[in-house]
Amino acid sequence: VSSDGGTIEVPPEEVYALAAHLDAQAGLAEETAARLRPSPAVGGPLQPAIEDFLLCHRTAAYALAGEFRWLGSTLAAVVDSWLGLDGSVPTPRGQATPR
Amino acid sequence: MSADLPAPVALDAPEESPAALSEVVSAVTGAAFRLGVLEAHLAGPAAEAPRWFGRDAAAAAAQVGAVSAVVRDAHAALTGAVRRLDRHADLLGQIRRRITTLRAEQEDDYGALAHRLSVAGPCDGPGSPSQAAVLSALGDELRAAEAARRREHTALLAELRSDALETARVLAGATALVGGTGRSGDANRVVACLAAKLPGWGDGELTARASALASALSGPVRLEQIETLARGNAPFAGVPLFAGALLGTLGVSGVGYLLTTLGREPEAADAPLARLLAASFGAARPTGGLVGRVQEVLDGQYVTSTGTDDPDTVALGMGAVLAAGAALSGGGVRPATAAAWGVQMLERERALGMPAVGRVPGHRGADPVRTVLTLLGESGDPDACAVLLAHRNAWAALLTRSPGADGLLSHVVHLASAAPGAGGAVAARSGLEALGSGLSPAGADSWAVRPDAAGIVAPSLGRLVAAHVDAAGALLQEAGGRVGLSAGADAALRGLAYLTVTPGAASAVADALTRWAGTTASGSVTAAASALGSFLAVREYGQRLAHALQAAQAQEAAVDRQITFDIATLPLEAVKGFPAVVLDAGASTVAQWVHADGSWSIGPDRGPSFDGRDAAAAAAATVPPAEQFRAHAAAASARTAFGQTMAHLGIPHGPEPDHWEDGILDEATSDLPEVLRELFGHPAVRLPR
């Protein structure tokens, strides 16, 4: 229970799985960006629009990749932090287990 | 038979490459497919942690939702683009095939005609009706077919071009979904847009870009490179994080260097660097690890009162940044910063006696102080206006500088009257001190305020003083006491006196003071009465001061006329002997006729007069009915305060017009006025030349 009365529940395996899943999406986003690399010139009035379109969506795909990586690592760090906190809290009286 | 055939019509293929277009379609299709897979992955159960609760869980879910929305938008954009590109590729194929068919028909027609001409046999000779008819008929047939092919070819290319433009429009629309505008060089706009939606990636990206830009701008760099960097990074400048990181990394010295660079530019307000700095100063918030550095830059001292050329150039650069910001849709430098910059410029202007525009040779741009006043006036921000006006030196510089911005200043003063609390009160006090500085007997020759500037600003200053009448009341109470006044209080009191000569200002202050006295009287009748008595003394002094100033003005005008006349008649000095005597007498007569002999006159002082009885009556009138038994004490207090304040202020005497007997005495006792002044301590008032 948090200090403001709300419930805090952190299932480590679930959050780690989510973090890994999100991190994996970064690979797909990077593949997307790679597909949108500059192509041979089409020519005509369409050429500038194609160049700008590819550049914008390539940039967006890289941004998505960066965000997925950040989400994955941040979520994993959150769980690490909670696990570290749990490990530092003394066991309540009478519930200690012998090592 | 032989004949000249018309040249075949050119049936060129479209310039677009089907292979390249096909490659683009394939690439975008592949990218759209991957985004589709991504979208599905994010919509599935693996993208959730259903048993995770708490703030972290909520924040993570929100961010996964945000990134999913971007994926969805990007996927929709790519899918739409693929459809349109596919359609265009189909059309391109159709048109290319049709043009190929036209070329084949053209080849067939020319081949058939050549064949018919070759089998028709030799020509019967010129004028043979049968051969001429054949030639004419064959030529007409070919020309008609060629004309039809030309028309169709032109129409095909026009159709393709029209479809290409429509496809380009769709692609531009598809970039808008991720922050593009459809113009070239949109990548940074996409970064700026997505950084807001994807802060986990965006914050780091923007910080890194800002640091890189700051390093590039700080190093040895040519002006063209600065402009290119500024133009390229323009989409980020309005983003608080980027702006803060840029300014924080640049630091005060880096920003100062860039302001100097701008100040040397002839059209600096239009420069991309000016827009970059304007947007950055407007957006920057002290956050992150650079809190202290960003605040230092926002509060930085860029223009010092001393030093030679550079501070003036920096001031011009500041003016360019302020002007550039005014044209930005997202807003430029914040009014409070503009006001602080204005104070720096005016402190220097006051110290050196000349504005930056006058000290930088060859500068033809706008006056930065004028730009500050314009920006503050348009901002409508009372607090920012009060920041500028809180400084006596700023006021003094504004009231003594060349005409041209008095109306702007008046508007800024008017706005400052709405500034709550101490800010407005300090601005009012500073204004009074600047207006009255130099009017005391000790500084009689240093009153440098331009009377026309004071006249324009006085009504607004009156409203400012009235809006913060507590401060004026306290000043008047201090003047009515027996303790000597500080130099600042003395100047403020004389400034208030000058103000009361302007009808609008006088009534505004008087009304506010009367109301203030009415409320204050419930606490202390004598204190309120003392302030009212002092105010009547201030008004009395103000009236006499006005007459003295008029006299000084008349004297100065007479001296100016005399100097002009003397210069004009200087050639007569070359005449010697008796003619010189005649000419001298004639010149003196002419000088008298045209009022250029240095004489002047002024009517008697007919301004209203106030004395201790008026003070007593005014104070008694404000005593609440329930406390009438205190009216006598109030009147006595006001009368005393009137006398004390008059003793502080003295009676101002202007110069007296010369009389005929003075001319005789003048030669022998040219220093007499000074001697008398020293003996009797009369304040002298002299207008600035």
Q: How would you describe what is shown here?
A:
- The complex is a heterodimer of chains A (99) and B (689).
- Helix content of chain A is 67%, strand content 0%.
- Chain A has helices at 12-35, 47-88.
- Chain A is rod-shaped, with a radius of gyration of 23 Å.
- The two termini of chain A are 28 Å apart.
- The model of chain B is unreliable at 660-689 (pLDDT under 50).
- Chain B has helices at residues 18-43, 55-119, 129-176, 187-197, 199-218, 223-232, 234-237, 240-263, 272-283, 291-298, 310-326, 335-352, 356-359, 368-379, 382-389, 392-400, 406-416, 421-436, 451-467, 469-480, 487-499, 503-521, 525-568, 578-593, 612-621, 631-649, 660-668, 672-680.
- The longest helix of chain B is centred in the first third of the chain and has 65 residues, at 55-119.
- Chain B starts with 17 loop residues before the first helix and ends in a 9-residue tail after the last helix.
- Classes of the chains: A mainly alpha (99), B mainly alpha (689).
Class of secondary structure makeup of chain B:
mainly alpha
Task: List the secondary-structure elements of chain A in sequence, H or E.
Answer: HH
Counting helices, strands and paired strands, the structural category of chain A is mainly alpha
DSSP strand tally of chain A: 0
- Largest interface, C-beta closer than 8 angstroms, per-chain residues: A-B, 53 and 72 residues
Please outline the major beta sheet of chain A. none
Radius of gyration of chain A: 23 Å
Distance between the termini of chain A: 28 Å
- Envelope shape of chain B: elongated
Strand content of chain B: under 5%
What's this, in brief?
Chain A is mainly alpha-helical. Chain A is built from two helices and no strands. Chain A has helices at residues 12-35, 47-88.
What descriptors fit this protein?
heterodimer, A: 99 residues, mainly alpha, 2 helices, 67% helix, 0% strand, B: 689 residues, 28 helices, elongated, disordered C terminus
